[in-house]
Amino acid sequence: MPHPLDVPPSHPFSPANLPYGVFRGTDGRSAPAVAIGDGLLDLGVLAARSAFDGAVPGADALFGGPTLRPFMAAGAPAWAGVRRRLAELVSPACPDLRGDPELLARAWRSRGEVTMLLPTEIGDYTDFYASRQHATNVGIMFRGPENALMPNWLHLPVGYHGRASSIVVDGTPIRRPHGQLQTGDAPPTFGPSRQLDFELEVGFFMGPGNALGEPIPVERAHEHIFGFVLVNDWSARDIQRWEYVPLGPFLGKNFATSISPWVVPLEALLPYRVAGPAQEPAPLPYLADPEPWSFDVALEVSVAPPGAGPKVVCRSNLRHLYWNVRQMVAHHTSGGCNLRPGDLLASGTISGPDPDSFGSLLELAWRGTRPVDVGSGAERTFLADGDRVTMSGRAGSGDAVVGFGEVSGVILPA
Ligand code: CA
Predict the structure, then answer these.
(1) Ligand 1 center–CA 183 separation, angstroms
(2) Alpha helix segments (H runs only) across 206-276
(3) Per CATH, which fold does 20-117 belong to?
(4) How does pLDDT run across 265-279, given as a tens digit for each residue?
(5) Is the pTM of this model over 0.90?
(6) I want to staple 396 with a disulfide (CB 3.0 to 4.6 A). Which of 30, 225, 343, 400 is the partner?
(7) How many Å apart are CA 328 and CA 312, to the nearest integer?
(8) Which sign, positive or negative, has the C-alpha torsion 287, 293, 298, 303?
(9) What fold, for 125-412?
C-alpha cells in the first residue's frame, strides 16, 4: 500500500494543488485542513505540534479554531509561507511528517471518513453576471436579439448582493422553494416553483479586505483573493421573473447556493492564467486591467434523474468570463464598499459559445423549447424532484492537474 502522502501529479488533489477546507471528524471536532490525495491533513494538529514554526509566525492562531477565516485574513505572505511549508511536509525528502508516525497518524485522515463543512462563516455574498454569452442568451430569450445586452453591460461587471445565510456545502439537499408565480394576465398564485434551475459558477473567497471608503485598485486586487470554489447558484426562474422588477433577484435566488468544500488557492491556479475575451469598448481606467487574469479551468455539470446515473449536460470553462476577478474586486470596492475576509464573490453563470457549454437549464433547454436529454430516457426543461446536479472543475490535464472536486445537491419536493 503506497504511503498516503505519495500522490501522483495526475491526482486532482496533488501537491500542486493543496486546497484548504474545514472538516468534522468522527470525534465531532471541526478543524481546518489541507487536502492531499484521497486524504487530508489536520492543520490544527500540525500547528499545535509546531509544524509551521519558523516558516509562518503565529500559525497556531491561524489554525486553532474551527474555520479558515483567520487564515484568510492573514494575507498573501502567510498564505505563501504555509503553502511552501506544506509542500515541504508532504514531499518524500522531508522527515518531519513521514518520519513521525505518531504525528502522521494524528494529522492524516481519509477524506472518506470525514464530513466537510463550509470553510468559513460567510459574512457577505455577492453574485456577478460576468459571462457575456450568458447575459446575451438571457437577453435574447427575454428581450429579443436586438437589445440582448443591456447598455451598461460592456462598461461594468453587473452584480447584486446575494444572501450569505443560505450558502450550503456540497451534499446538502435543496428543497424546492415556494413562491409567487404569475403567468399571462392571471393574478399571481403561491406554490412550488415549476422552473427550478442550476447556475454553473465559480466563486472566490476574500482574504484581507479594505477599509470603508478605500477602494482596492485593480492592479492590487489579486492580493486580496484567497482562493476559489465551485458554486451552484440555484435559481427559481418563475419566481424570479415575477418578482425581480425593479430591484433585482430576491426569493428566486436566496433559498440556496451550494459551494464545493475545498478552496483552491490562487497560487495553485497561477500556472493556468490566461487572457480573457477582448474587452471592447475599453473599460474606464479604474476598471481596465493591463494583465491577463482569467483562468483556464474546465467545468462540467451533470444531472442524474432519480434512480439513474449522471449525464453530463454542460461543458464550459472559467476562461469564458468577460470580466475577470480583479475587475470584480476593483468594481465592487470602487464606490468605497468594504469587503471582509471570508466574503464570497461569485462569477455569475459561466456560459461558453457552444450550445452544450451553456451553464444553466434555462439556456440549455432554451426557455423550455429544447428539452435536454439527461439519460435513462428522461428529458428536462427544468429540474425535477429527486434530480441530483453535480458540478466539477479542473485546471490542467494529464500529469499536471489542479482539481476543484465537486459540488452536488439533490432536489427535495417542496
Ligand atoms: Ca447567479
Answers:
(1) 23
(2) 237-243, 266-269
(3) SH3 type barrels. (2.30.30)
(4) 999 999 999 999 999
(5) yes
(6) 400
(7) 29
(8) negative
(9) Fumarylacetoacetate hydrolase; domain 2 (3.90.850)
